[in-house]
Amino acid sequence: MRLDGAASVSVLSRQIGSRENPTTRDDSSRYWRESCDGWCEVAESETPGHGPALKRVIGPGLLLLFIVGDILGAGIYAVTGQMTAQVGGIAWLPFVLAFGVATLTAFSYLELVTKFPQAAGAALYTHKAFGLHIVTFLVAFAVICSGVTSASTSSSVVAGNLLAGLDETFGRENGLGWFDVPDGGTAELLVAVGFIVVLALINLRGVGESVKFNVVLTLVEILALAIVIGIGFAAAARGSGDGDIRNLVIFEDPNDKGWFLAITVATTIAFFAMVGFEDSVNMVEETKNPERIFPRTMLSGLGIACLTYVLVVVAVVAVLPVDYDSGDEGILLHVVRVGAPSLPIDEIFPYLTVFAVANTALINMLMASRLLYGLGRQGVLPPILGAVLPRRRSPWVAIVFSTALAVGLIVVVDRFAQSSMVAALSGTTGLLLLVVFAVVNIACLVLKRKPGRGFFVAPTWIPVVGAAVCLFLVGPWARTSEQMIQYRIAAGMIGIGVVLWVITYALRRRAHESTGFTDVESLGDDR
């Protein structure tokens, strides 16, 4: 899962060269020329009413890489084991269905972003469609919460894999015998919290170099999944491993929900792995010939991600029995261990996972802090959230607040969740974004009746079906009893935002100041 409201490349590229002056674009242009290495071009253009501006024109190769990188990430590591536990070897089917849901909503996003190409994303579309400040705020804060829950999910995945990697490398039993690597819930909790704190420090320092770093980590993500797929297919060809490729058509229903509801539950789980496409639409103004290549490239990116996930499930089923319990380390690590026991790949793979998932978490915490900063700057939330460090221009109060929210979330969920932390938090992320996507689909329908420029128009039936399916997947029938905690987590986080909004509203009303958004279009822009 990546950030909504401002694409990773858009937000990060605006920060390049901004540590001394956040409005300077020349350094950003120079960086892109040096780092794109032929993938993209940079040209200057005039922005009416704003003087000279830099127009970054991204080629199809880099665009596809970023779209695939936006979707791939913590999701596949977090949910694959959950899905096989829900439906058995047919776990590839929920990925395909989640791809279908994501594609429907992607059509709505493509239409809306060509009409309103600003970085505010879902909040802007909601405001343009309904004009209700409270609804706009709820959508914006739901996006913030989804970023925090996604980063918290990533922190748990990082903790499990980092401890497993350290044990393989340095542990007394499996590694060099240097020391005993702690395991269990307490150790993973401490590592997860520590990881979130490290992300905050990186965020405070500034992320000007993260555009190139994002590309590198995207390649690491692809490499790690390619290793899993390769090992799985090799095991299937040799007939080794403990799995059976024939299990791909075997449906299991341990919760006795029936095939329809069981597949529905698994689809809501898989949906966490398909989000991220919504961020990429915000690169439309930076894309060369967007009318021709952007919709095609975005939908191709979704298809590549779906195919990758299906191949990963095939690898899992080929190597492991469908009832395999991987614990908190993640099922993909066990595919590597069981499928290639004679190779030292299992010593390296946990670290590849850490780097791949860390990229997701960093971008999500970046998004959450920037949107909090935007809400504070516009007076919708306490203005102190708009405070920045004098030299680095990092929104330090928003970073501290989002970090505290993530740490508190990790501790509370670890204490009260009946299921694993990863299952509870990834499911909550999916729940929040399903609500946001339903609103975006409805907004697309409303805005079809209003004139506006745009080079992509989705057929009317697509947002209708998209909204209906998203709302269906939000319902309690799409969750097991253990997953009902998702509603409490989401409600608690949204409740924090509503309390802050009410306090800010009351104080501004008493001071006879504006109580709504002053410029929704700039909400996702951290300049």
UniProtKB/TrEMBL annotation:
It is a multi-pass membrane protein. GO terms for molecular function: transmembrane transporter activity. Its main location: membrane. It is found in: Cell membrane. Keywords: Cell membrane, Membrane, Transmembrane, Transmembrane helix. Pfam families: AA_permease_2 (PF13520). GO terms for cellular component: plasma membrane. The chain crosses the membrane at residues 57-78, 90-110, 130-151, 186-204, 216-238, 258-277, 298-320, 348-373, 394-413, 425-447, 454-475, 487-507. This is APC family permease. It comes from Rhodococcus rhodnii. The lineage of its organism: Bacteria, Bacillati, Actinomycetota, Actinomycetes, Mycobacteriales.
